[in-house]
Amino acid sequence: MLEYLMLDSLTEAQEACFVEMGFLAHAESTFGSKVGYSGDKLLSVARSYATDPEKFLCVAVDDGRCVGVFAGHLGEFYFSYDKLARDVLWYVREEYRKIGVGLVLLDRFEDWARGRGVRVVYLSQDSGIHMDKFTRMMERRGYDLVGANYCLGVS
Prior knowledge:
Distance between the termini: 45 Å
CATH architecture: 3-Layer(aba) Sandwich
Largest sheet: 5 strands, mixed
Helix content: 25-40%
Shape: globular
Structural class: alpha+beta
CATH topology: Aminopeptidase
């Protein structure tokens, strides 16, 4: 049974879930061939996102198996005091993408952001995973394309 858990603390199983999702996201992304992966670093990030009220952490679990994750945080524009909400990690196992798990995670994030007086939800597509599909999906949801990300490996 598929369930969505907004986390304000992490059990050992949820920590393992988050680290696994981060590993899979890293491996599938353009960063997989450019930078290393550290489960310990990701785990420290997950712990801070679970306990900080300015941060959001939600996982999708299907019969005990972690199938998706969304992490984001509140911030401000450098030119304004208006609040914005940004994503940091949004990843869903490929076999769960077509049934809308990612969109439910996004719904939860958008609702969380609205409840905190956010003016703008700002999502970045810096993984390189299915960029055309991602752009179409975001535009159908009413998001505007406002820029691009570029990456250069230098060592």
